[in-house]
Write a sequence for this structure.
């Protein structure tokens, strides 16, 4: 059941579902749902579609107004995560061209793992936050294949190319050398909020209920 809130707009009482009310304040929630018939939580196609649609809508409402994305996600599909990334962030790393112009802040609540941590790091520099008890996890992409040996080789090549691309993007946003990213990504690497800040995934650890009050 989706909670409903009552707001007073120009003296008129109006009812909103909580997510629409948050969207009016330019807040996007990226809480990964459970995929139907799956035991794992994922950043699924529905979530990617919803988040990208909300970002594009907010862009149309005000190109210079900041957007906040609150993340509590165990990750999931690389392609869907990259769809969100390409909408919110740098389209051309060299030219710093962006698909949308709004400055985007990212906030980790609870957990940002796998593609969740990737998108957390992709917020605008100086506007990436984590709550004090948040957990962040990074690792290399994984996948599976079956069939003929040639088909398996094609999938393996694609996974390796994807890993290289993700490592370069992580390096760009964290300031870490690609070699260091490769080392950390070799296995699941968990970080607390302060460790994520030190690594460059976030810029601030929030100690109050304000995203503009960082822990120095």
């Amino acid at each position: 059941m989706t909670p409903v809130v009552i707001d007073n707009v120009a003296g008129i009482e109006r009812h909103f579902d909580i997510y629409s009310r948050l969207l009016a304040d330019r807040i996007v929630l990226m809480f990964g749902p459970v995929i139907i018939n799956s035991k794992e939580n994922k950043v699924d196609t529905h979530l990617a579609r919803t988040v990208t649609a909300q970002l594009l809508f907010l862009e149309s409402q005000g190109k210079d107004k900041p957007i906040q994305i609150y993340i509590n996600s165990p990750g999931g599909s690389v392609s869907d995560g990259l769809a969100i990334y390409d909408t919110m962030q740098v389209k051309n790393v060299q030219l710093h061209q962006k698909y949308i112009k709004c400055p985007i802040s990212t906030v980790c609540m609870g957990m940002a793992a796998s593609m969740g941590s990737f998108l957390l790091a992709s917020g605008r520099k100086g506007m990436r936050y984590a709550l004090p008890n948040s957990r962040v996890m990074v690792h290399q992409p994984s996948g599976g294949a079956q069939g003929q040996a040639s088909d398996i080789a094609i999938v393996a090549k694609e996974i390796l190319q994807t890993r290289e691309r993700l490592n370069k993007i992580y390096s760009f946003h964290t300031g870490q050398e690609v070699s260091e990213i490769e080392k950390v990504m070799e296995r699941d690497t968990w970080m607390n909020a302060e460790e994520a800040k030190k690594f460059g995934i976030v810029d601030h650890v929030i100690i109050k209920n304000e995203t503009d009050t960082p822990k120095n």
Summary: Residues 124 and 214 are 15 Å apart (CA to CA).
